[in-house]
Amino acid sequence: MGIKMYEKILLAVDGSKHSQKAAEAGIELAKKTNGKVMALFVIDVAKEYEGIGGVSWNIADNVVEGIKKSLRECSNDTLKIVGEMAQKSGVPFEAKMVEGQPATEIMNVAENSDMDLIVMGRLGRTGISKFLMGSVAEKVIRNSKVPVLMVH
Known about the structure:
alpha/beta; Rossmann fold; 5 helices; 5 strands; globular
């Protein structure tokens, strides 16, 4: 009996082309290991509306609800696309959407769902910062108890 690795793979997706490449890689890995994938979309609303501080609460609440609605739609679309990719590859698939701080939620879901691997994309950058990973990816890599595969 061989060693079973990466049977449960968490795909951290955000709708970007980078996360799509990561999802493709994670699905391919799951296919090769007879594993399954869970695609996770974290809605990080706080980052989107930090700058509306001087606005009255009623207006701010409406803006926040509009942002949340847009992010939920993006999440649903993204998770649907990843689900179709997994189905096409014959890989069992689960979708999950949560609200919160992305790095924290990615690690929490990975640990609480007994994932074997987190797969996520890296943002492309220019200049000297091209050598640095995005803050979410960096936090996950530095703090996750679950192994992380970063896809360029």
